[in-house]
Amino acid sequence: MEKQKSVAVVGGGLVGAMNACYLSSRGFKVDLYEARQDIRTMEIVRGRSINLALSCRGRQALKKVGLEDQVVEDGIPMYARMIHDLNGTLRPIPYGKSDQYIMSVDRRKLNETLLTAAEERPDVTLHFQHKLISCDLEKGKLSFKIAPAHDDDSRGQVYERNGGADVEVTSDLIMGNDGAYSAIRKHMVKRPRFNYSQEYIPHGYMELTVPPHNGEFAMAINYLHIWPRNEYMMIALPNQDKSFTLTLFMPFDMFDQIKTGDDVMRFFMEKFPDSVPLIGEESLKETYFKLPPLPLVSVKCSPYHVLDKAVIMGDAAHAMVPFYGQGMNCGFEDCLVFDEIMEELGNDLSKVLPEFSVVRSPDAHAICDLAMYNYIEMRESVNSRWFLMRKKVDACLHAIMPRVFIPLYTMVSFSRIRYHVVINKARKQDVLVDNSIQALMALTAVGGGYLTAVAISRNFNINSITDWFHNIADQILK
Q: With CB atoms counted within 10 Å of each terminal CB, which end of the chain scores lower, N or C?
């Protein structure tokens, strides 16, 4: 009888807990090691975004381990972006068809659900307050320090310098799911021909809150609200307790210029005036200075494996900025792709791990690039009439030929088309649409010239002809 293989999952966040579920279902003995305390027993979990946007890729991964319905039940659908203009005007921009939506889900509750699901599965053991201190990836050896974690650090990973015990483990497979600042990846960086890059963007983020008003949501519930201001923006996602989590994304030098409560009020009254009564003046002043703005990092690396002994996934392999809402979804899809490769190659780790690196790295690099691009779209492009016209044209073409023409956002959020394929297809579609719009505009100009000539010959009012064309353009954009 073949000996049961063991896996050491390093990191008990979303992807680590998900992988524990997947690996258990494949017959592995799984030990999950997490540096923090068990978040299910903590009053406050610091340093993590409160809510996340769950879409198709993440849902498919949850479905495979029987958790989709449970997670979706606690989520809030968001069918469109709701744009908040400076003058207070609200403009919805649908994500796709009327039945397509992304879901606002609570990060902590999702993590707790996954940890509990993993713990309930056979051959899964959870080890909290185990901080990785060294490892030998080629031999599958890990050393952890077991010590009480102080809950006064943003990542909950400050350990007492003295005391505690060290424990060493050996495993058939080490799975690094330990986040953007991965300890496992740091050891992989030392290996020859390992490609690694990271980029901190000049923008940081800060979370604020819109509390319930009279026991109800203070804004329309089924939207991701956006205040786009070209160089910076604020977004809001709904929560189950009828509050909204607001996140302000802005260059650090702008954060640095706001030093007093009066500065905060002047800035928000000038840039986000409709948000002030929603947040509340006192709450805004207090919350703004409670924690400093946090950085945003993008990480790319390859390969994702070491021999048949170690592999990294999630943020450890491809941390990305949050502007496409795909960080969690991509990490969950990593688990699903790995499982699909395991199925195809019969759990042969010597074949599965290199295949995972080859298959997944171009997709992860692609979504990191798309996430960077989408920040420009969210904070700036949504203010452009050309962008709005493109959205209308994209939707029209997709309705006419749904299998041939698929909008970029639809491919990313409502399909499992590989991310790098999405980029290539979107580029070809962009050329088609841009050429079509330019041809239409040329025909319109020719028609306008003809009608103007007729108007002159018949003494019609030229201004009325011009107004007529403007009315047509406005109708297209409505």
A: N
